[in-house]
Amino acid sequence: MKPTTLALLLSTAVGASCLVSSRSDTFACTTQADCETPRLCEMEYCVVDKDASPAVCNGGCDSSGTCMITGQGGDSVTCPDGKTCDITCNGDDCNNIDCSDAAKCTINCVGDNACHDITCGAGDCIVTCTGTNACNDITCGTQNNGQKMGRCRATCTGASGCGNVTCTNTCDCVIDGCTSAGDCGTLSCPRANGSFCTGTGTNGVPCIDTTSGCSC
């Protein structure tokens, strides 16, 4: 082989190896802090993991795939579409919470003004509000072609623990608490067989799901 040809090949090889090294160095990491979202630090490289937890799941996902979210800085929280979420807000940690497209949400609002408005859709929602004004308005359920969907259980504890609780479009709603004046705002329950799903059959008192047609 001619010296000039050999020199050209070596030069090309060296140049290529330098290029590969440069690109590899760009994605090298020692800790997760070295990687930008959505990349993860795995085997000393920042890689995109198709099974990685959505960014909003700041507590990761547990073994069942539940998205764990802890409220921070008073920001609003949206459970990703089709996901099951476990959301915890302590002492004004959260603004509005949107679970309208979630498969299921368990929401714990603990402390004064912990959560603002909470919206749930066709998925199940379990909402616990503990503290003075722990939650603002809670709206559950949706309708599709006249069919009510969504199950909701809201537990309200503390002075004005919950604002208005609207379950009109749910197929199953239970409200625990809200038995004394000032505990909650206006309560709106679903209807079945001509009566509201309450202990008295009239609206404005805590919803129950034990009467005929009030459970799905």
Structure description:
The protein has 216 residues and is mostly beta strands. The protein folds into 2 domains: 17-52, no CATH class; 56-196, no CATH class. The protein contains 1 helix and 17 strands. It has one helix at residues 3-26, and strands at 39-42, 45-48, 67-70, 75-78, 84-90, 94-99, 104-110, 118-120, 124-130, 138-144, 147-149, 151-157, 165-169, 172-177, 187-188, 191-192, 195-196. Strands 4, 6, 8, 10, 11, 13 and 15 form a 7-stranded mixed sheet that branches. The protein has a 6-stranded parallel sheet with strand order 3-5-7-9-12-14, with no helix packed on it. Strands 1-2 form a two-stranded antiparallel sheet. The longest helix is centred in the N-terminal third of the chain and has 24 residues, at 3-26. The protein is elongated. Residues 12-22 have low confidence and may be disordered.
